[in-house]
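Late entry, written up from scratch paper. The run itself happened at the end of the previous shift, but nothing got recorded in the book at the time, so transcribing now.
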Amino acid sequence: MGGYSGTHDILLLVEQLHSNLKSMESSSMGFPSSTAEIFAVCFDKRWSCLLEQSHKSYRPLCVLTFRWNYLLHGLEPAGYHLVNVLLHTIVSLMYFRMCAMLLSETASFAAALLFAVHPIHTEAVTGVVGRAETLSSVFFLAAFIFYTKATRRKKSTGWRFLCLSMLFVATAMLCKEQGITITGVCAIYEIFVAQKKGKKGEHEESEFQCRMGEVTNGFECHESVFLE
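Output as recorded:
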């Protein structure tokens, strides 16, 4: 995480947000002064009120975190950067948890470490608007982890975990639209992992029953010979 620590001074400068935020303070599109106005962002269909012509993305939860940042420390870049780094840390830990379900602990740790320090994530961590990526990733991974829990049992569905997974899918979408893609990941997991585990479990169970039947029959034959 140390690789991201030296960029807080240029965090807003690079994206030219500071001047835009200053100009917004005196405009009708400025930041809210009450809790009710904060949650009014959920009814704003624009991704960024900093853009004159937005591409109409709907990311209210991400915008809401920006407004919370502003209420806490105004335009101080360090606060925005700190939240982004914390989110990236959480994502890296969740990535390790996800890998641990499929790989060994050593391989999972190596994969998570590479994920955490890989330079491809620099823009998502150091850039203010990159928070949409990391925030969505938190709920993206949470949705997948809970889906795997829902399919863990062979003969029944964990409906509580499945409902939580669906909730996290919706939340990921409210952070960034790409959150919907987790449904495809879950479908692939269901077809190529969960279903194969189910068939393997059924085969092992039937094989176990057959062996138990052989043992039981042998014991009965042995007992009948002994009684005779």
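Confidence is low (pLDDT under 50) at residues 8-30, 208-228.
(Scratch paper discarded after transcription.)
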